[in-house]
Amino acid sequence: MALVTDLLDWLQALPQPGLVAAAGGLVFAECTIGLGFIAPGESGLLIAATTATSVPRFLTLWAVVTVCAALGDSVGYVLGRKFGPRLRETKLIRKFGLDAWDRATGVLERRGAWAVFFARFLPVLRTLTPAAAGASNLPFRKFLPATAAGAFCWSLVHISLGAALGEAAKQVESAMNTGFLVVAALAVGVLVFFLLRLKKRKALGVSEAAGSPDEQAEEPARTGN
After folding, report:
1. Is 64 exposed, middle or buried (0-12, 13-18, 19+ CB in 10 A)?
2. Angstrom distance (rounded) from CA 63 to CA 141
3. Would you write out the chain's pLDDT as a tens digit for each of its 225 residues?
């Protein structure tokens, strides 16, 4: 019953530099063009965020993830700037995100840097928008502040959510453990009650079958008559 708590305690006992570096690496890989379809950056961040049980841990993870996300987006932007619309015709984009690429391009044309900010919160588009921004020739001086602000807010939301989920999981598991003990005690009590009643009924049945002493004394007289 303590599986979740044990897992969270194990994660929190891991060396923080390695755990933070792993989370940052996954986020960086997810934000880079193409790797977001493979690397579970968001899931890895939520798991790592369950260890943010103190203010220093929280701030450290937040800072590292923000920087890694912004760097990953910048790599995607550079790739988009270098290869341009040809990226749309690559096998990876055609297989996983052709429609998303077209949507990202359309939103970028209408909203500019704001599209970069809000795409950070949308799966798939988060991976494709930086490259699409580069391919659409959005100026880097506009792209960088937008992607940095998006990474800042996105990482804050997900780290807060992961930390809250970790604490909630412990509370739920604790409640489940307490409830299990109460239910088990009630079940044992009910079982004992029914066993005692069954034993009492059997005893009464044996007594009735045997008959009372007076009835046993009168039986020979009835037979003689």
Report:
1. buried
2. 21
3. 455 555 556 666 667 788 888 888 888 887 776 666 666 677 778 888 888 888 998 999 999 999 999 999 999 899 888 887 777 777 767 776 677 777 778 888 888 889 889 888 887 778 888 888 888 888 999 999 999 999 999 999 988 888 887 666 455 444 444 444 444 455 555 665 566 666 666 665 655 555 555 555 555 555 454
* Tokens describing residue 15: 């060396």
**AA letter at 24:** G
- Token output for 209: 């079958």
Separation CA 45–CA 58 (nearest Å):
12
Which residue reads 């109460």 in tokens?
182
Q: Concatenated DSSP letters for 162-218?
A: HHHHHHHHHHHHHHHHHHHHHHHHHHHHHHHHHHHHHHHHHHHHHHHHH--HHHHHH
CB 140 within 8 A of CB 49: no
HEC secondary structure over 31-68: HCCCHHHCCCHHHHHHHHHCCCCCHHHHHHHHHHHHHH
Distance of alpha carbon 16 from alpha carbon 158, whole angstroms: 18
Instruction: Determine the Cα–Cα distance for residues 123 and 24; give it in Å rounded to an integer.
Output: 17
